[in-house]
Amino acid sequence: INQRGKGLDPMDLMKNMILLFIIGIILLLHSCATESSIKDTFLLQPTDTYLNFPIDEDTRLPKYCLWTFEDAGKEYLAFPNGGKEILFYDIESESLLKKSEYMFEGVDGVGYIHSFAITDFDHIYIPSMNEPIIYETDTTSRIRTKIRYGKTDKGLHLLPTEFCINSPMIILGDHFYISQYRNRGLGEKCLTESPRGVMIDRITEKGIITPLKYIIPVENMQDAHLLTSGDGGSVCFDGENLVYSYELIDTVYTLSTDFSVIKKYPAKSKFIEETKFEVVRNATLEQKLKRICELPIYGNIIYDKYRDVYYRFTFPEVEMDKEKSYLDIFHSGRKQFSIIILDKNMNIVGETLFPEYTYNPNLVFIRKDGLYLSISHVKRLDFDENTLRFQKIELVEM
């Protein structure tokens, strides 16, 4: 009210509204600039450094499950071949060092080798695909110990470990962490109560399931096995916590190793507006694979201990052309992906989109000098099935 007891003059009111509007725009621009400066601090930049590992005629290019480890001060690369052996390469010389072949059946049999974990040449751990057993062995293929983890302390029957493409077995001193599939033994609660993983005491062979469950964004989904993009995810270990990335959820979760503390952090890709899934009926396998390669999801999350950051792989929505084999495209890491960079406090500090049909994000490892991404993609013009190739990617501050 002014001194004459009347309302504000219409011109003064309009001036105030314009002033408030301008202030609001300034604050919004400042907020966006601040957000952009936080999120775009780092990028991943390809270098001219390559590694080339020869693949002989008896070896298939790996589709997943790469391990690097040190033994006597040297670095080595290992991966399974054909379900029956593990190959070891000297990273420095880029040469095949050894093939360790394992028995499939019998007392010393380990079954089909789909994944494994390794700390050195004397400690290799192979999880069974068919039974809840982990075989402790070495490069001589001799089984030292069979670690059985059939039930939890509450009587839940556990499952063989999940495929290594997203969730490798993690060695934590005298414990193993392994991921779990959706547990059909839970009946109607399978879709809501299946644990994401289990911590196994290798001495007592007892398991404790995670408080984190599978997350399915549809209630009472009875046809979950038909989802073209599923309810799975990825897990890594950063030295203190287990870190989870779900396929269909923007959020990243951390879980303490005693399972007592759960935290969650926003980690949305700027290239994914919204994740999607579909239930496809009456479709061929190739048609389903095509949709899997097209739909937007989140992939692996891995920890870079040398730079104290996390890399969350994402797959934006794409359109696929007619292909001879969508399975080959899927095994090569789909068409396009990006990598979200998260700092030690789980803040997004950058995201890099990689060119189409150039890298294979299923095959990746980290060294002191950088991140190594496979360039063995079936759609590359220089693709060579006789060489497993990697290119060094550097984390660069902008």
Q: Mean pLDDT, as a whole number? A: 86
How many helices does DSSP assign? 4
Number of strands: 24
- The low-confidence runs, each spanning 5 or more residues with pLDDT under 50, are 1-6, 26-38
Which H/E pattern describes the elements?
A: HEEEEEEEEEEEHEEEEEEHEEHEEEEE
- The end-to-end distance, rounded to whole angstroms, is 53 Å
Q: What class do helices, strands and sheet pairing give?
A: mainly beta
Strand content: 35-45%
Principal-axis shape equals globular
Q: Radius of gyration over alpha carbons?
A: 25 Å
Fraction of residues in H or I helices: 10-25%
Strand order across the largest sheet: 1-24-23-22
Largest sheet: 4 strands, antiparallel
Write the layout of secondary structure elements.
Blueprint: H1 10-39, E1 42-54, E2 67-71, E3 74-81, E4 85-90, E5 95-101, E6 117-120, E7 123-127, E8 133-137, E9 145-148, E10 170-172, E11 175-179, H2 190-193, E12 197-201, E13 207-209, E14 233-237, E15 241-246, E16 251-256, E17 262-266, H3 285-294, E18 297-304, E19 309-315, H4 326-331, E20 338-342, E21 348-353, E22 360-367, E23 370-374, E24 387-397
Antiparallel strand pairs: 1-24, 2-3, 3-4, 4-5, 6-7, 7-8, 8-9, 10-11, 11-12, 12-13, 14-15, 15-16, 16-17, 18-19, 19-20, 20-21, 22-23, 23-24
